[in-house]
Design brief:
mainly alpha; 7 helices
């Protein structure tokens, strides 16, 4: 390591690479079960060793040092995978919710159009009472006062309108 640290000796680095690459790769592959990911991880590890060669102090063996570096990278990779999985799950949930909202809106719009088409077919007085009830949200008494009808007549007209619409298979 001193040759690598003091003299920027590429031969020393190449020797470390040749000697330890396969061992570190095998450990990474056993943990990741993914050859490409294990290879990338080991290559990144050696790039970091070269880039930080001036700062590295090894208190144990090279293989122990490499193993510790690999273990830390595997932990980072696991966290990264968990985060990516969570992001994907969030995207799926949002997409599903948005799709459901879209389909609910379309279905609601379609039902509304069907309802209004059927309301147009109601007798004119019944239609007027039904629309005052459902669109203007007037109470039975308010409609009765506005149209000079008895509250019971208004109730009957609304009930008849709902019955007719239900017969057309609309759900109110």
């Amino acid at each position: 390591m001193n040759l690598l640290k003091d003299g920027d000796d590429r031969n020393a680095f190449n020797e470390l690479y040749v000697r330890y690459w396969k061992v570190i790769y095998d450990i990474g592959f056993k943990k990741l079960h993914n050859a490409q990911l294990a290879e990338d991880l080991v290559h990144d590890l050696f790039v970091d060793i070269w880039n930080k060669r001036q700062e590295i102090t090894i208190h144990s063996t090279f293989i122990g040092y490499f193993h510790t570096m690999l273990k830390n990278r595997l932990i980072d990779q696991s966290r990264k995978n968990a985060f990516q999985l969570q992001v994907q799950q969030d995207i799926l949930e949002r997409t599903s919710a948005n799709e459901n909202q879209f389909f609910d809106a379309v279905a609601s719009d379609d039902i509304e159009k069907q309802l209004m088409a059927e309301v147009e077919n109601l007798p004119s007085d019944m239609k007027k009472i039904f629309l005052l009830s459902r669109q203007e949200h007037l109470s039975t008494i308010e409609i009765a006062q506005k149209l000079s009808l008895s509250p019971q007549t208004v109730k009957n007209q609304i009930s008849n309108a709902i019955r007719r619409l239900r017969l057309k298979e609309l759900h109110l």
